[in-house]
Amino acid sequence: MAKEIKTQIVINASTEKVWQVLTNTQQFPKWNPFIKSINGDLVVGKKITVRLEPPKAKGMTFKPTILAFEKNKEFRWLGHLLFPGLFDGEHKFELIDNKNGTTTFIQSEKFKGILVPLFAKMLDNSTTDGFTQMNKKLKELAEKI
């Protein structure tokens, strides 16, 4: 079973400014309503520790592996619940330069595994709400820089 969540927002700031806020993970606890913390080196192939707290849902901490980290363009990781194949999530932040001083920020996640149907309702509600809330706060901060 597979499922994808995808949200996007247009930010009135350059991709460089959006990237600056997005990758300053030490500041996440101060502003990010969804991803409360990211700890570790943001380097492809490395594991990081991520704390998620979706609205109206139980938070979780996991250790995904960074799959992509391309400055001003993409940050992507793959995480697993307990072990691969049970409930896997490939989270992606994508920045698109609109060539007019704005950036389209896309946050998505592809879920695969035998437990995906059990979590489908939570993904549609709490997780999607968490993405949307984070996108709005990212926009707010990047537009202030």
What is this structure, in a nutshell?
The chain has 3 helices and 8 strands, in the order βααβββββββα. With 145 residues, the protein is α+β, with helices and mostly antiparallel strands.
Strand content: 35-45%
Q: Residue-averaged pLDDT, rounded?
A: 96
Shape: globular
Low-confidence runs: none
Order of strands across the widest beta sheet? 1-8-7-6-5
> Measured on Cα atoms, how large is the radius of gyration?
15 Å
Work out the helicity level.
Answer: 25-40%
Q: How many DSSP helices?
A: 3
Q: How is the biggest beta sheet arranged? A: 5 strands, antiparallel
CATH superfamily: START domain
As for the number of domains, it is: 1
What class, by secondary structure content?
Answer: alpha+beta
Q: What is the number of beta strands?
A: 8
Structural descriptors:
Alpha-D-Glucose-1,6-Bisphosphate, Chain A, domain 4, single chain, alpha+beta, five-stranded antiparallel β-sheet, three-stranded antiparallel β-sheet, 29% helix, 145 residues
Descriptive notes:
With 145 residues, this protein is an alpha+beta fold. It has a single domain, classed as START domain (Alpha-D-Glucose-1,6-Bisphosphate, Chain A, domain 4, 2-Layer Sandwich), CATH 3.30.530. Helix content is 29%, strand content 38%. Helix 1 (15-23) crosses helix 3 (116-144). The longest helix is centred in the C-terminal third of the chain and has 29 residues, at 116-144.
Secondary structure elements and their pairing?
Blueprint: E1 2-11, H1 15-23, H2 28-31, E2 35-39, E3 49-52, E4 60-62, E5 65-70, E6 74-80, E7 88-97, E8 103-112, H3 116-144
Helix pairs in contact: 1-3
